[in-house]
């Protein structure tokens, strides 16, 4: 088991809602083209107004920057010798506290790597790291006959919270003992495949990359990009056109990429898809005094955008991920499956790592009141000065910790004069999260923050959703708290008890915590904003 553990851990290191009166008989909004935009009061300070800017999309300028650690002029290899492995394993547990190795495993690894010379450990293409297929490649390969191992029937995976596990090739979860037994039988059969040359090997390389991403919501364009990068590495080795970087370069690259500096922040971007909508995207930088934070907000204009028309806004938090969904959402409008809306994704400044839960906890949990105030009293009124927005039919979406925030937002909306949203989408609310619970006042969230003590009814439409298979993923964190799906069930029960008739829920089949999001966002876009007949 140790061989696959070391290989996968090396990879892991690098990757480390509208008001009741505006609903038609089928529950859809019908007033988006007719409604005059209600005005909101803009509470931005003079300082905030002076710092607000709008311009072209700049996300590609920040995408996967490595702070100049590796040159972007071709293929570079980080080659390891036995001494490099000795240093690596000496500090392994220090650098990998979530999945440490035993002393026996470290000793075994040191012995097996002691005589290694110039092994390709990491590769970079134009400054970006490549990890797939490198275990098959020798630096002396000349492009001719090659024998490689077949794809292993066991994969090691992590839930992103430090919990490691195993699955078979069909995605079924395995115990460590089961995984060891399957791998033992696999290697006893000498599972090698021989190819006559590199051209014959290429389809297998593509298959191996698809296999590596199996079970993950990875855009096909990203898979193709990784395959093309892997091919460049192989061709550079065959043609001897690569250059080398010293031991430890990949580690520096990862630290730079994960640091909170403008040069190294990374957004999850489907490069080709975002390029398609780039002409229709306006990028806003909006600073908030209370949070002392600059927010990067992308507004994607609908097809045939007109200044004289009023549009609802479909607002997505966690812009570092959700901006990626705007290409599919705009495509639904282009194809006539949904009416035109303004797509608004809220991200943090490029110098803030929006994928880091430390930052998400700050805005969604610890500072949720200030963040809601920023959206309600600054951002949405400001955008209303830029566009004619049909606030009554606009939507706010949040997922996971963002789902707890969307829940907070709808049930604290009555405290504000401004009402920028009629619809709220609460995706997989992580009411159990260690990042959420310290910032709640006991079980206040289970009372919907006292909303129904202050009000008899609610005129907001609420959609609550989750993935059918997501509960086991975070089982270690629930304790005595509800799991995600239990939390959704109990929230719906409470709302029914309050007499709320504008809330509904859906659990998406064959999905864990986030895989359903693209389908759900498009589905709700088409439901809330049906195409005009």
How would you characterize this protein structure?
- This protein is of the alpha/beta class.
- The protein has helices at residues 2-14, 46-51, 59-62, 82-90, 92-95, 103-113, 176-188, 198-212, 220-239, 249-258, 271-277, 319-322, 326-334, 357-366, 368-386, 401-410, 451-454, 475-478, 484-497, 517-528; strands at residues 53-55, 75-80, 119-125, 128-130, 146-149, 154-158, 164-168, 173-174, 192-195, 243-245, 281-288, 293-300, 313-316, 342-348, 395-399, 423-427, 461-467, 503-508.
- Strands 1-11-12-14-13-15-16-17-18 form a 9-stranded mixed sheet, with helices on both faces. The chain has a 4-stranded mixed sheet with strand order 4-3-2-10, with helices on both faces.
- Helix 4 runs antiparallel to helix 6, helix 11 (271-277) packs across helix 13 (326-334) and helix 14 packs parallel to helix 16 (401-410).
- The longest helix has 20 residues, at 220-239.
Defining key terms:
533 residues, nine-stranded mixed beta sheet, four-stranded mixed beta sheet, 20 helices, globular
Largest sheet, in brief, is: 9 strands, mixed
Distance between the termini: 59 Å
What is the C-alpha radius of gyration, as a whole number of Å? 25 Å
Uncertain parts: 1-37
| Tally of contiguous helical segments | 20
What structural category arises from helix and sheet content? alpha/beta
Find the count of extended strands (DSSP E, 2+ residues): 18
